[in-house]
Amino acid sequence: MPKYFNNFHIENLNIKKHIYPILLLFIPQIAIKIYNIIDKIMVGCMILDKSELGNYEEAYKLINVLFTVVSSLGIVMIPRIANIFSNGDYKKLNLYIKHSFEFTFFLSFPIMFGIITISKEFVPIFLGEEYKKAILIVISLAPIIPLCGITNVIGTQYLLPTKKQKQYTISILVGLAVNIILNLIFIKRKGAIGAAIVTAISQFVVVLIQVNYMQKQINIKKIFLSSIKYLIASFIMFVICSALNLLYIDNRVILIVLKVLVGMIIYFMLLYIYCARKIKYCK
Q: Are 108 and 142 in contact (CB under 8 A)?
């Protein structure tokens, strides 16, 4: 038996003190699972036309795939931020959170505007012609890409590693409650599109609550202001790419490829110009 087991005795375990922290982590995970399926359940129960549920579910899957790309940094950062917090290095903590936000905004804004721009051509190709109604649902769900990216940074990378599980739990439960209440109103009136709008609204509510919990230690306002360049560059990219529809290109694949290439060139060119001017100004 390894030597580190010699002093281990089951009777010395104090299980009670671990129950509350475990519940604080367990409850939001259950809430998140419910949060991810409650809109689908409500659409299926409240709307007789089951094609609405199919359109919503496929659109949600597409957006979820794109969000996975944005959230890829989250799991990697948890142990590092937890270690920095335990050492009391709040200056370094601010720096890491700022970098996480920069990465999130750098990816999420162009992805959001990009999928909105190409949704009309991409959805029928990717999902099939029978899912044309999913185009508007994809557009309505697109804002959750940056919103979920923000909650990934604040919730997963900050609140949980810094022992603020209670605040994290509250934000998720409030978002879930808002989602259910608004779904009862919007799904009856707007169908699956209503559910998509409610999903974006409830995610925004979660962001507001988590930002409120975070701003005491992190200068969140400064971080958001410094990241506005990604929003502006992405919006300009969106406008230019949307104008490509005026070319009347019949082939959807060619139009998608053209929009993606032009969009990437515009986005990175604008960021390069911004950085170049900033460096020149600093000199």
A: no
One DSSP character per residue, 44-94 reads HHH-S-THHHHHHHHHHHHHHHHHHHHGGGHHHHHHHHHHHHHTT-HHHHH
Contact status, residue 159 vs residue 150, Cβ threshold 8 Å: no
Q: Please report the pLDDT score of residue 101 as a whole number.
A: 87
271-to-25, 103, 236 alpha-carbon distances in Å: 39, 13, 11
C-alpha span between 74 and 200 (Å, rounded): 21
- Cβ contact 104:70 at 8 Å: yes
- What would the two tokens of residue 131 be? 């899912």
State the pLDDT at residue 189.
86
Query: What is the reported pLDDT for 69?
Result: 82
Distance CA 163, CA 20 (A): 12
Element (H, E) at 179: helix 165-190
List, for the chain, all residue ranges whose pLDDT scores fall below the cut of 70.
1-18, 24, 73-76, 78, 276-283
Question: Amino acid identity of 247?
Answer: L
Distance separating alpha carbons of residues 92 and 104, to the nearest angstrom: 18
Q: pLDDT at position 10, please?
A: 56
Task: Say if CB 220 and CB 95 are below 8 A apart.
Answer: no
Handedness of CA 251, 256, 259, 264 (dihedral sign): negative
Tell me the whole-structure pTM to 2 decimals. Answer: 0.85
d(CA 177, CA 205): 10
Q: Model confidence over 138-181: pLDDT tens digits?
A: 999 999 999 988 988 888 888 877 778 888 888 888 998 999 99
Mark residue 191 as left, alpha or beta (left: phi above 0; alpha: psi -120 to 50; beta: remaining): left
CA dist., res. 198 & res. 190, Å (int): 10
